[in-house]
């Protein structure tokens, strides 16, 4: 089941400085959003608020935000919203142990759980490293493990904070595959990135944090208008 997450009058203040004030926003169902903004405007802070990892200075999130551990790894609480950090935290253990942790409370026998984990690792190209300790992984491989751990939970909303930073082309393509799969099954994604890439091209809407507020625009209309203008210019040049 997918959910719709709504925020109203959400503000974040640090002492006398207002980082941002968002009158309202809605995520889902089946949304793909590109969150943009300059460094320091609060993109990461906003994602953490939506995930329940930070409490805003004021405002409401509906449904109520889940507890920290439930948000990251599932369990007794709601596991609908997952935040994927740019530098993901991995447990001191094997690749397999890190991914299976997300579904340890799921009512499946050990064999079925292993099948789900191996399927997730295969999707990110790391099934052969399932029994390796995470300390031997590269930065890109760690990010792929974190994505597999999130994907195996089948979240309703996945918040991806600079997921492609410092990743090679193969790693980005692996993340794209999993993000596409989530969208196919009705989930929503929000992606922050400082440059367009294969992940941001999945998005159909964009948010800008600018002048301490959130500006929303449908990404497809922007692309379509640019393409229409280019086609019009091409047609005009050929008619001369």
From TrEMBL:
Residues 5-235 form the ABC transporter domain. InterPro entries: AAA+_ATPase, ABC_transporter-like_ATP-bd, ABC_transporter-like_CS, Metal_Ion_Import_ABC, P-loop_NTPase. It comes from the Bacteria. It is an enzyme of class 3 (hydrolase). This is Energy-coupling factor transporter ATP-binding protein EcfA3. One of its GO terms (molecular function) is ATP hydrolysis activity. PANTHER family: METAL TRANSPORT SYSTEM ATP-BINDING PROTEIN TM_0124-RELATED. Belongs to the ABC transporter superfamily. Keywords: ATP-binding, Hydrolase, Nucleotide-binding, Transport. Its EC number is 3.6.3.-. Gene3D superfamilies: P-loop containing nucleotide triphosphate hydrolases. Signal peptide: none annotated.
């Amino acid at each position: 089941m997918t959910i719709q997450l709504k925020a109203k009058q959400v503000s974040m203040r640090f002492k006398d400085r207002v980082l941002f004030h968002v009158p309202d926003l809605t995520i889902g169902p089946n949304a793909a959003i590109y969150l943009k903004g300059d460094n320091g405007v609060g993109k990461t802070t906003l994602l953490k608020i939506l995930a329940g990892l930070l409490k805003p200075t004021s405002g409401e999130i509906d449904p109520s935000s889940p507890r920290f551990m439930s948000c990251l790894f599932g369990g007794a609480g709601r596991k609908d919203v997952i935040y994927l950090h740019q530098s993901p935290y991995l447990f001191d253990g094997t690749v397999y142990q890190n991914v299976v942790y997300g579904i340890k409370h799921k009512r499946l026998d050990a064999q079925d759980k292993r099948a789900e984990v191996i399927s997730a690792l295969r999707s990110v190209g790391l099934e052969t490293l399932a029994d390796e300790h995470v300390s031997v992984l590269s930065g890109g491989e760690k990010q792929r493990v974190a994505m597999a751990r999130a994907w195996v939970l089948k979240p309703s909303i996945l918040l991806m904070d600079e997921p492609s930073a410092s990743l090679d082309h193969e790693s980005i393509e692996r993340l794209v595959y999993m993000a596409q799969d989530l969208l196919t099954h009705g989930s929503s994604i929000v992606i922050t990135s400082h440059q367009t890439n294969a992940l941001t091209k999945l998005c159909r809407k964009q948010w800008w944090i600018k002048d301490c507020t959130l500006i929303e625009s449908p990404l497809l209309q922007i692309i379509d208008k640019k393409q229409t203008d280019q086609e019009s210019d091409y047609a005009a040049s050929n008619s001369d």
